[in-house]
Write a structure and sequence with these properties.
Layout lengths: L1 H15 L7 H9 L2 H5 L13 H10 L3 H9 L6 H14 L3 H11 L5 H17 L3 H13 L6 H17 L3 H17 L3 H17 L3 H15 L5 H17 L3 H122 L6 H27 L8 E4 H11 L1 H6 L3 E5 L4 E5 L1 H17 L6 E8 L3 E8 L6 H4 L22 H12 L3 E6 L5 E11 L2
Helix pairs in contact: 1-14, 2-4, 4-5, 5-6, 6-7, 7-8, 8-9, 9-10, 10-11, 11-12, 12-13, 12-14, 13-14, 14-15, 15-16, 16-21, 17-19, 19-21
């Protein structure tokens, strides 16, 4: 029964010492690779906003703020990638993502950099030690020791302390005792009270396990004395519990109760401290997350502003380029229009000069044949043909001259009220010989009371061209009639013939300059279409309209509308 109880006490002490404090070597190793720490020795273990991301990362790691350390690492764009990876994998170990850390340590263990190799071997040894794989831990600890580089104080102590614990667990008490005492001497040299108290506790645990209770109590008492002024509640709680157990074994019940009460108080304080620390950590994590959210929002707003600014600049740039191009095109179009207008002006002037110069000899020729007819000299069929040709040529030249004048804005328009029937009568007399030659039945039906408003001379050109076309396209023995009709605001003149008519497709473009609308008259001669274009232009100058349609009975009907008034 006593053996069983003793065994239970041993388990309790062993478990109470399972908190194995190491990490100074790792923290010191990262600190030695920090330029900021080497310059600012008084601020080595403090977060400094103006310091490098690497400094704040390894300080956060040393303070067990692993998520904060991870955040600083993510913002580090200057530190060597290997250093960042090593710190990140040590954070993974603390966050219990050990497999990935182990995989990386093994992958880099063949590096030629001896300092990094020693650090990696030490890290692997600690990793295997924490997982109670003591044989593997021994292998990597020994590999780390064999690397021929200077070994720091923390490096030697932590490996020896780890080995001492392993020898203790394997019940090799002699070697464990030797190593613990060596470690204790080194800690005493550095006057590290926490580590001194902890190692006294480890030695007490070593002798308690060997049933040397008095020696164990002596070491536990020393640990208790050194831990008194300390703020490490976990260590003080462990030492108080160890003293409670040793007192129980020694049947010192009052002492056992005293230490158990102290243990309970310390343990409650530790739980409260942990709770406060956890709340503080959560609050800090919340504040960090909030700051990060604000930072992300500001970054997003800044990026959005930059994107919008770039977009606006691009739009303005594209708009400016298009504006420059359109401006250049506009200038080029203006230049071409100017050249075209100048060309048209020259062309129209040329037409005017040619028509004017040709008009005089043609008029002279016409007078000679008219004089011959007046003297009743003998005429031949050839003379008649020449007379007709001269008449057509004269009309064509008149049309050409008037067309060029209208296009050059040189045609003077003088509007007045004049009787329509007189104009029709005058034009009928001019074409009397042609009408009689083709035996055309010609008639007019225009009321003498109707006055139309416009330029009388221009209107003569219109009626002459329309009647000339009607005669040319009406065969012998045909009919031509000029009539009128009063509408609401205008008077419409109808020139109706029984000629060969105009095809529908030609009617659609009758007033346009197209080469495919020319048509042969009853004598086989082609019409140029200039007269119709001139007619439309003249009617528009007089404020009227013209329309040509097919005569249902055969032939063509020309409708000319002009403003009018009735004087009857």
């Amino acid at each position: 029964m006593k053996t069983t109880k003793r065994f239970m006490y041993l388990i309790c002490i062993f478990l109470s010492n399972s908190i194995f404090g190491q990490g100074s070597y790792t923290d010191d190793w990262f600190k030695n690779h920090c330029d900021y720490c080497n310059i600012n020795t008084e601020r080595q273990q403090k977060i400094v906003e103006t310091a490098s991301a690497w400094h704040n990362a390894h300080v956060s790691f040393a303070n067990n703020k692993f998520k904060e350390a991870k955040r600083y690492i993510l913002n580090d764009a200057k530190t060597n990638d290997t250093l960042i990876q090593l710190l990140e994998k040590h954070i993974f170990v603390q966050l219990e993502v050990e497999n990935e850390a182990k995989k990386y340590f093994l992958s880099i263990s063949n590096t030629n950099n001896k300092k990094i190799k020693q650090f990696v071997y030490k890290s692997l040894g600690k990793l295997y030690f924490d997982n109670k794989q003591y044989d593997s831990a021994f292998i990597y600890y020994n590999k780390a020791i064999k690397i021929e580089v200077p070994k720091t104080h923390f490096f030697t102590i932590e490996i020896d302390e780890s080995k001492a614990f392993i020898y203790l667990s394997k019940e090799n008490y002699k070697v464990s005792d030797s190593l613990y005492k060596k470690v204790l001497r080194l800690y005493k040299l550095s006057q590290d009270s926490i580590q001194i108290a902890r190692n006294y506790s480890n030695l007490g645990n070593l002798y308690f396990e060997q049933y040397e209770d008095n020696t164990a109590k002596k070491y536990f008492d020393s640990a208790y004395i050194f831990s008194k002024p300390l703020k490490d509640l976990a260590l003080k709680s462990t030492i108080a519990f160890n003293l409670h157990l040793i007192a129980e074994v020694s049947k010192e019940h009052e002492a056992a109760i005293k230490y158990f009460k102290e243990y309970t108080i310390l343990n409650d304080s530790l739980q409260k401290q942990n709770a406060i620390w956890q709340v503080a950590q959560e609050k800090e994590a919340f504040n960090i997350a909030q700051k990060q959210t604000e930072l992300d929002l500001k970054t997003a707003q800044r990026n959005t502003f930059i994107a919008i600014s770039i977009g606006i600049l691009l739009v303005l740039l594209i708009g400016f380029v298009f504006y420059r191009k359109l401006k250049q095109q506009h200038k080029q179009i203006q230049k071409l229009n100017k050249e075209l207008n100048e060309t048209n002006t020259v062309k129209n002037q040329l037409f005017t000069i040619i028509a004017h110069d040709l008009r005089s000899p043609v008029a002279r020729l016409k007078q000679l044949f008219q004089l011959k007819a007046i003297k009743k000299e003998e005429t031949t069929p050839t003379d008649k043909n020449v007379t007709q040709i001269i008449d057509s040529l004269s009309l064509l030249l008149d049309n050409l001259l008037n067309w060029s004048l209208s296009q050059s804005d040189l045609l003077s328009v003088q509007k007045e009220w004049f009787p329509l029937w007189q104009i029709v009568y005058q034009i009928e007399l001019q074409y009397q010989s042609l009408i009689e030659e083709k035996n055309i039945q010609f008639s007019t039906n225009i009321e003498k009371s109707v006055l139309v408003y416009g330029d009388m001379e221009i209107f003569k050109i219109v009626i002459r061209n329309c009647l000339d076309n009607a005669i040319k396209f009406t065969p012998k023995d045909g009919k031509i009639m000029i009539s009128g009709k009063i509408d609401t605001e205008s008077f419409t003149v109808f020139i109706t013939d029984s000629g060969i008519g105009i095809p529908e497709k030609v009617l659609k473009s009758i007033f346009e300059i197209k080469s495919n609308k020319s048509q042969k008259d009853t004598t086989g001669r082609k019409s140029s279409g200039l007269g119709l274009m001139l007619t439309k232009s003249m009617i528009q100058l007089n404020g009227g309209t013209i329309k040509i349609m097919q005569n249902p009975k055969g032939g063509t009907i020309v409708n000319i509308s002009l403003p009018y008034k009735n004087v009857a």
